Amino acid sequence: MTDFPPELPELLLDQLARTPGVLVRVERTQGSVPREAGTWMGVFADHVVGTIGGGHLEHEAIAQARRLLHDQSLPANAQRVALGPSLGQCCGGVVHLGFERLAQGLPVPRERLAMAPMPVALFGGGHVGHALARLLLTLPCTLTWVDSREGIFPPGLPERVRCEHAEPVHDAVQDLPAGSQVLIMSFSHAEDLDVVAACLKRQRAHGDLPFIGLIGSQTKWASFRQRLLAQGFSEDELAQVTCPIGVPGLQGKEPEVIAVAVAAQLLMRRA
Fold it and tell me: Which helix H or strand E contains 194, and what residues bound it?
C-alpha cells in the first residue's frame, strides 16, 4: 500500500523551520472565483506550499508575497482583486487576499491554517475503503475510520484521521462528530445493515448526520429496505439513505474509480 500524502500545514511548517515566508490567504470572495474563503498558500523565496487557485491571480499574489519578503519596509496590506478588470480572468468575481509575514522558526497555530474541513466517517477498511481514505486525505476533510477487524489501518496516518476498532462496529455511530458525512462499506452485509440502522436511530434522536451513504447495488438496497422497514423505520427515514453511492456515469468498478465517484459526491454536497 502506498504512503498517505502529508498534510499541507505540515509542509508549510517544515519549510518555515528553515526560512521565512509569507502566508497568503483568501479572506473573502464575491461571485465566481477559483477558490473559497479560507484557502491559503505559503510563499517562500524559492518555494510555494499550497495554492489559491492558480492562474494570473496566484502568479501576482506570489510576486507580491516575494516583494514583501525582499523588502521588510513594505506594508503587508490586504488586496481586493477584481479578476476580470484587473487580471483579465474570465471568472469575473472578486477575491480579497490577506498577506502575513511569517518569521523563520516561529510556530503558526494550526487553527489559522484550517480550511473548514468536512467531517467524514468511513466504515470499512477494505480495498475501496483504503482507496477512498487515501483520496480523502488530499482533500479538506477530517476522517473517522472504523472497522471491526484488527490490523486494518496503515501506520503513520496524520492527526486528522481517527482510527477506531469497534466490535460491534455499529457502536461507533453514537460517538461520531456531529455533521459527519457517513460512508458505509464494511466487509459484511450484516455489519452494513447494523451501521445503517444505528445511523437512522441517531437521526431519529438528533438529526445531525447530513449524509448516510451505503455502497452496493439497487438490489442490495431493496433487501436492506425491507429489513429496515421490519425493524420499524419509516419510509421517510429510509429516504435519508443514499444507495448506491457515488456520482453516476463513471465507468469501472476498480476501487480507485469508486473512490473518485464517492469523493466527488461529497464535494458536490459540500459545495
Answer: helix 189-205
Q: How far apart are CA 141 and CA 136, in angstroms?
A: 6
Give dist(CA 203, CA 217) in Å, integer.
Answer: 23
More confident: 109 or 246 = 246
Give tens-digit pLDDT for 113-130.
Answer: 766 678 999 999 999 999
Domain count, the chain: 2
Q: What pLDDT score was predicted for residue 271?
A: 62
- Do 70 and 133 lie in one domain? The reply is no
pLDDT attached to residue 91: 56
The number of residues in the chain equals 271
Domain that holds residue 90: 8-113
CA dihedral 49, 55, 269, 177 (to 10 degrees): 20
Instruction: Find where cell 425493524 sits.
Output: 231
Q: Name the pTM for this structure.
A: 0.69
| Distances, alpha carbon 174 to alpha carbons 78, 117, 190, 199, 219, in Å | 44, 21, 18, 8, 28
Q: What are phi and psi of 257, to 5 degrees?
A: -65, -45
Amino acid at 94: V
* Same-domain check for residues 57 and 134: no
**pLDDT, tens digit, for every residue of 83-97?**
875 555 555 688 999
- The stretch 59-79 carries a mean pLDDT of 95
Statement to judge: residues 67 and 130 lie in one domain = no
For residue 93, tell me if it sits in a domain.
yes
DSSP state of 4: P
Query: Cβ distance 63 to 97 under 8 Å?
Result: no
